[in-house]
Queue: 3 jobs
Job 1
Amino acid sequence: MLSVKDLNVTFQTRQGEVEAVRGVNFDVAKGEILGIVGESGSGKSVTSYALMRILDAGGTIKAGEATYSGIDLRRAAERDMRDIRGREISMIFQNPRAALNPIRKVGHQIEDVLRQHAQATRYDARAKAIAAMEAVKIKDAEARYHAYPFELSGGMCQRIVCAIALACDPRLLIADEPTTGLDITTQKAVMDLVRDLIRERGMSSILITHDLGLAAQYCDRLIVMKDGLVVEEGNPIKVFSQPEHPYSRKLVDATPRAGASVRALLPKETRTPEPQIAASDQPLIEVRDLVKTYAGKYGPVHAVKNISFTVNKGQCVGLVGESGCGKSTTSEMLVRLLDVTSGQIIFNGEDIAKTPARGFAKDPRRARIQMVFQDATDSLNPRHSARQAIAEPLRRLAKMRGAALNSRIEELAGLVGLPLPLLDRFPHQLSGGQKARVGIARAVALDPEFLILDEPTAALDVSIQAVVLNLLVDLRAKLGLSYLFVSHDLHVVRLLCDHVIVMKDGEIVEEGPAAQVMSAPQNPYTKSLIAAAPQPPERATPKDLMETPDAQHPALHDKFAS
Amino acid sequence: MLTSYPRLRAILLRVAQAVPVVVGVVVISFLLTRALPGDPAVYFAGVAADEASIEETRVAMGLDKPLPVQFVRYVGDLLQGDLGQSLSSGRPVATDLASRLPASLELTLTALILAVVIAVPLGVLAATRPGTWVDHLCRVVVTAGVSLPTFFTGILLIYIFYYLLGIAPSPLGRLDFIYLSPDHVTGFYLIDAALMGDWETWRGAAKQLVLPAATLALFTLAPIARMTRAAMLTALSSDFIRTARAAGLSRRAVLYRYALRNALLPVVTTLGMVFSFALGANVLVEKVFAWPGIGSYAVEALVVSDYAAVQGFVLAMALLFVLLNLVVDLLYTAIDPRIGFDAK
């Protein structure tokens, strides 16, 4: 149905011409779901924009052919392309809230598309828009018709984006990272919905994602892209079990999955023995009856409702939950950036909740508790070099100056594996992984005992995530740190943590040793979380690449499941 | 009852918030005018006055009383709608303002409408075609608009269109002496003449208005065009524009229904600001075109320490700004549903 041959896309930039896509070939058959997998900068999104001819300014299709049902997409007139977009080929995007016009009612946005493609008249547009909303399983569509995007949840916004894309019954749907940034259960709901609709209507689809597990679960065929080239193509089970190209092998290795150790995420050549960490039974931080209540517009909002847990010395505790469950509020209270409403935080025998958050920066215990923030880019001052960023806590809290400061910074850089020449670069000149290293170096600069890691790898590509996770394991062993690891990614939590706490609506619904919670969850919510996480197919033969003896896990590809 | 109309209630609340502002303005304008250098009694007693007659004038003007007493008397008069007598024109300040404020407003509003009609499309065009001649034109107009002082453009326009080409009427006020000014209804000559059906006078008033309005428009156009261009560029690079394009919406729908409406918010903010400084800045334009507006009135009053007139002017301007801000706020909520009145 869609055939792409030798597609080349270039962008005019100030540095000259940049080749984003360099000779990509693929076909999409009728009824097929094709997955395009790759890390950031691999050209996977640009390929899809090129097919729709909605490249950003400066981008052009330099060479190659793209044919959809006999139509030459590269040379078609703009007027014809407008008829094809939305009517024949449509797209759904990542970050659904930003993908909708913020000041237009969602119902009207669906109507716009229907009217544009003459699928509705002024009189029946409303009814058809509501029908389109019902088709994507929006409850109470009649009332939601009048909602603005900011009044809806992320998952609901993505359904609206789907409704817009599917309103005119297109034959090909391109989904560009449709669930990035959504909660794991929402991700499953949205993906299941999209897959069911595609199957029901006999459509074809291209799923663009960085998540190999997700792609394997929902696609019939995968292509792996790197630096604008297709490096591997094939059946997802085969790509997983016998990746041929070194890059796909690296990607498959780096994808956190059941049964793999944290070292197994790294390419084989760079693996070192995993350090043994023995957590003691001595409590480092004890949280007792912690409560946080905000004054909301419609009465008090109970963000954290009376939770208690303990982190022992040398332990790594995972705090898992979906957005709005109170995990960030909890971590901010522990790191003393936020005052508690009631309850105690006993750190080394003293209640630090008594010291107001505002004055905690001057408290000598400030240096003992540090935090690594979620977004490495946003949490660094763009006008400070890496050196200045790492120096900040040392200057402020340890009063270090001059040569002592410099040697400590260089020591820290060595510790987190940041090459010394990069210290004088600014955040925008560093890669995501390097910025994460700066964030970690800054947090461990003062030799803390307790480190709170707030989704430290959420914004990173899988191969970088693998490296950073291993760095965290090494640091914990080397410096004797205790971690509270806040994450929504169960696979990552399983890799790193000894103990897991599952939160929902401000309460702890389940806790226990990581292996036990993951393999035999008791609470229905925990069960649904684990079920929603995409399960990459197990890697099998060849023998020299085998990591775990129990390679007999059933493949979880949906075609086989059904 | 009001709770069932959240919008109305919010507007009333918003108006109530303006009350302390107005009170503050009354106090400050009173104190500031008293702090002005110069003694009005000396001025109004005349050049030949001696000590005794100056003192006599002072008592007659009530300036011998202590400040609090003067203030109480002033507020008492104000509550009855009496803004005092202007000493320079000899008429009640309220009457002066009623005749002069509409003149300024007519000029400023016409200029602003002209500016918006030119600047917004220019900004949109420049944003959709960056780097082309429209973009360059926009840049030239913006630079010229901000860098040429209004009195200079005013005089230049008079020189070209009145002196050289002779197509503009003489720059002497709102209406040529051959016309009778229309009956006072709104004070806006264009509206009043139209209400009377006197199109002859309407055309005369419009002719007089063109040059000063164009002068002021050129000045106010610059920030609006620049803001429209910047806001459109931001809006056009948003994710939702890509969604709209991927859904096959026409270029016009994408541009106007999706991008422009989102870009309007900063444009409206700029518009409010431009309007307020245009009201102040048109003193020069009024001087150049002998326009009997409120700006020139205030300057004349200030020079002779005419307390009542200055206070009246400041108060009128303050009320106008309060009203303007209210309108801008209301426009915000009309444009952007995310902005609620009750949100802090």
Job 2
Amino acid sequence: MRIFDPHIHMSSRTTDDYEAMAAAGVQALVEPAFWLGQPRTSVDSFVDYFDALVGWERFRASQFGIAHHCTIALNPKEANDPRCTPVLDLLPRYLAKDGVVAVGEVGFDSMTEDEEKAFSHQLELAKEFALPALVHTPHRDKLAGTRRTLDLVDAAGIEPGMVVVDHLNEVTVDVVDEAGAWMGFSIYPDTKMDPDRMVAILQRRGLDRVLVNSAADWGKSDPLRTRATGEAMLAAGFTEDDVDRVLWRNPVEFFGQSGRLLLDVPEAEQGATFAGNSLLRGER
Amino acid sequence: MNESLLAERCAEIAADHTRIRTRFPAAAREIGRTPGTSPEPGAERVEDDVRVRLLVALRDGLAGEADALSAEVHDLYRFGDADERRAVLLGLGELGDAIGDRAVDLLHDALRTNDPRLVAAAMGTYAARLDPAAWRQAVLKCLFVGVPLRLVADLDRRADDELRRMVADYAGERRAAGREVPADALALLSEHAHPHTSRET
């Protein structure tokens, strides 16, 4: 089983996770820029975070033979903090870089005016840089937030096929499907979606435009939920080719629209260094 | 390398210097790059040459505006990834007359890292602007992190007795620990012990 996790926050995971993911078949991933659990209080924190996403984290993944990509954005939560919003002016510098395969996570958290302003502005940036957009949907008032999201995408004049609306569930999937956008599902140990509910959605509406991710981060989450979903698909009678389509070819098709996928990761070279820093401890 | 696109980008930047902010990071993908990675310091790479040409265009576009040139170059470095930072350092030699001493702090930043490719890029002709103490420390750092001394601009002329003392101490420390002394260090020391007569005439 080859797996492309289209949404996982590796900066908050350990090397044990990378090792387990590689063993489970994960060969590529996308790490969207998001908040950190601990709120940022300045633009400089974003800059250091973005630098890690295009540098150190890519190197760390490469040590396990995993191709690491990222998306760059001001996330909806921090779009409400005037100390953070000036980062919008710096985004073009990062959206021009290699390995940056979408603008994201953008979208709504509490559906405020400030969130909407940042969201619309970043949809314009997605157009300017010919990048897909990765849209987070809110935990609260999810259906209304999803509808408003689709209105803004429409107003921005972006091809729905260049947009993935993420963290969907049984209640929000159909409006996104009808709009022609890609549908992202985060498979969690307890909340959001689980593998069996995911399989039921795939049985009902098919495999088109579906992305399955672990969305693993600093909270209770599991980077191997993608694999578990592949296994649940097989147990439910889907073929190996169906699993490959959902877990590999779909994300390659969606993020491939950026023209910036880096899927030719060289064989992992243990002992290599990034800025003179290796992952080894006491072995050199 | 796409020469015509490079020429187009250079003209664009010379006309509007702010365009370099997105053209510089995208240059390898859009204009040309050497495939794969080159972990060894000093390796020739197409994208480095491309980005240095963009910096030259920036210099020409901001002729007579040293402070503005310095601000733009500092931002390219600040927001750059490791490849972009290396290219900024490599380009400083071309910018020296226009930017003066304003970018010496970028050399200090690069020399604080342990990335041999950044350290090597910092030791080009612009490193003439490092004061003697900083320059000697940088040469010693090259020996530590494995940057070949042939990449250090003006080494023969600038190496002095204080540098040789530092390198001799370093060699002594290596020997005491039963470790090998880099050939570059030995070469620098042997020059001191047996000066070439041709130099003295």
Job 3
Amino acid sequence: MQDTAIIRPSLPQLESTARWLALLMLAIGLHIFEASLPSLGPWFKPGLANLVTLLALALMGPRAALSLAIGRVIVGSFFIGTLFTPTFVMSMAGALTAATVMIAAWRWIPGISLVGISLLGAVAHMLAQFMSVEYLFIRQPALFYALPPLLLLSCISGWINGALAGYIAGRLGHEKKQ
Amino acid sequence: MFTAATMCAMPSLTPYSPPRQSMRHALKGTWTDRLLLLASVICIVGAWYLVQAAVAAGPVVADIYHADTLLATYPLPQRGAVPIHFQAKGELGISEIVIDAQGARIVSSPCATQRCVLSGAHKHAGDMVACVPNRILVALRGRGETAFDAVVE
């Protein structure tokens, strides 16, 4: 008789997966919520969904953050009906660039906190969106007329989101230790 | 069994453990964060100055583009003048643009969410209205009243 051993994931693996899925659900919800907000400017959003990416980076590491950024754009776009449209391309470009920049900053900039990481992520997100539109859809430098004030807004929102992420990550880490 | 007790006993998966801090303390950031903010703001303000220097020349005009093609350029009409109606053919269909004393606006577009239409009229140099799905851009330049004001889909 042949032994049939069922390979079960370990509890730490299950916990990690469950936590990642919870963050993904939160990010998707915030992605959809942000899409319903009135526009403050071209492609400007408060960056709440990006805050969850930052939390995933702080709590689970770069791979989880990158996969969460990709996952929330795909699933979120599916729910708001923009999957594979130019809006989806812009969202994906922004989310991927922001996640990559935040990971690089987290790894290689000494003394940086989640506030600085979020600041760089927000600026990278806005730049990537404008550049993707300029490169792929509307090839006009006139697009960049509105970019500087939006980058300033991104700095503000990125700073606040980073502080929020630091506060939340600190509390989650504390709860976990207890 | 997967219980709270077993969860607490598990090794930490956290690659980084941020210290628990108040929101007020978190908002301060580190010196590195503040230096990054300062560098970002200096770069952005410099870029803004350069953009304004390039945009603010001559009377306020509206440039209408489809992708990489300039379709038309119209000066903003004075109050009481006849509004200009322009139909820009894009990827999805025709976006109808009206330029009058209130500014330039997209009044109809074949895009799904209609944010470009809902954004209303724009009349300041540096403003823009874009319908990305239809690849239509209306950008204003000139020595007019300058303010940040733009909405796109």
